[in-house]
Amino acid sequence: MKRYAFDWVDAFTDRAFGGNGCAVVHDGAALDVSTCTSFVKETSLVECTFTGSSQVADVRVRYFIATKEIPFAGHPTIATVAALMARGKVKGDHLTLETGAGVVPITIEGDLIEMTQAAPEFGVMPGRAVVASAIGLPVDAIIGEPQVVSTGLPFCIVVLRDHDALKAAKLDPEAMPTFKAACGVPVDVVLEPFLVTLEGATEAGDTFSRLLLPPPMPPEDPFTGSATGAMAAYLWRNGLMDHAAFTAEQGHWMDRPGRARVTRVGTPDAITGVKVAGRGFGLMQGDVLLPDSADV
Questions:
Q1: Domains of the chain by range and CATH?
Q2: Global pTM value
Q3: How confident is the model at residue 74, as a pLDDT?
């Protein structure tokens, strides 16, 4: 057993119990996968991060869900930087993170943390009927053609006609194998529909989103920073968002309101990056004893 310092940070919010929580285990990047996934399960969070030294960036960050390691995630990135800042490990207003999706540049403006996600990759269009079946909605509730988009982690971006459709959506786990096959990915790949409406949850927002999750993860993600970047790229490319910078909201119906500033790098036809900015609220600090893989 070894003792590690950790921070529990609510990301994309400036208050306790808002946004999306993430536990950041400092200097834990060398831990084995089994220990890291067991830690995520113990917290009941969607994702946790483990930091370490890097030869190509200022800090190495590994991202885990309850079942596996993933290359990148948005709200854990905000949470990780907020945790590093709280412990005095950030010097200046710029930082780079080594992730499984490449080096992610970070800019800090006071308490606002902005990550630059990778240029979007636009993938398969699975068809409205398949997506509608997976989320329990009629086909005409979907605007345009859903598409798999990644700015570091892939999501199927689905634009819904209004808040009523967004509220009525319900993920059908039994439909996910068909959905994933239509998206061109194996059933064990992490990929869900990211649902968005072109109206904020509040007057301050331009979009409002939900991410419904299958077991064993929690049923819904309060705020999804990586999907927000992919969603923004989809909206810009398809002419659904006129502004080069806008405010994205998520989590309000879960009583965990979150907000991000999203900014385009490049033109709608040639997006070279997506900047997603938010705040982090440090909820807990402490130590955790983590075992070797043989003890899990």
A1: 2-111+280-295 (3.10.310.10), 121-277 (3.10.310.10)
A2: 0.94
A3: 95
